[in-house]
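Human: Not sure, check this?
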Amino acid sequence: MAETPNARPPNAVPPSLARVAFHAVAAGLTPLIPVPFLDDYALRQVREQSVRDQLKCKDLKAPDKAVAVLAGSYDARGLGGHLVSYLKAVALFPVRKVFRKIFFVLWVKDCVDLTSVCLHHGYLLHHALERGDLDAASLQGDAPLKVQEAIVAACSEMDSRPVNQALRRLFRSSRVLMAEATRIFLDPKHGPRVPDPKTENAEVRSLTDRLLQEMWEERGYFTALEAHYDKHLKRDLTPKEPLAATGT
């Protein structure tokens, strides 16, 4: 049988994972933004855009709350809790800025940690959508929370050191600087923006491509991650048996 001219090689990285890797890299660059609080804002925007993009690929649209839950950015704290967090951030910002300038390793660690978290969560959301764990109807209910809880539980059971070591190599070998990260997330005319894989520079695309290859070389790790997620989601969805009547 003749091969299809544009057929994807059996060991090639699935194109559907390209955006997962891109958004993980974009999230990992947010600690480089030198503007107070803009780094946290940019991270939230990137994670929520990652969720929306994955849902869009399945022709799904979710309420803002469902997107926030799946992105891990939904926060039910009241005004008091937000105020405390704000004041802590104000107090710690000068310290964080000085230490990042002095110790390159702290910069790398922040980038690696965020990229790793977003890579794991993005990958498992991709897996959940491929399985059909979310649809138009369930996105309106509590399914996003159950999926997110299963994702968090699965990630907590994995030893992410192999992935983190690969990420550390990627960022240490990268030439991305603080000014470059600022350019990525700030449009001079319109302010903060969400990065787009079609318009980013060669360095960001290179990081994304290299991350995809690292993911594909660690297929066994991600297969195990899927199994942990499946286990936790099944546990959450299994109806609990009613307690037997005691007669009292």
User: Anything to note?
Assistant: Confidence is low (pLDDT under 50) at residues 1-10, 76-92, 242-248. DSSP finds ten helices and two strands in the chain. Strands lie at 186-187, 191-192. The two ends are 72 Å apart (CA to CA).
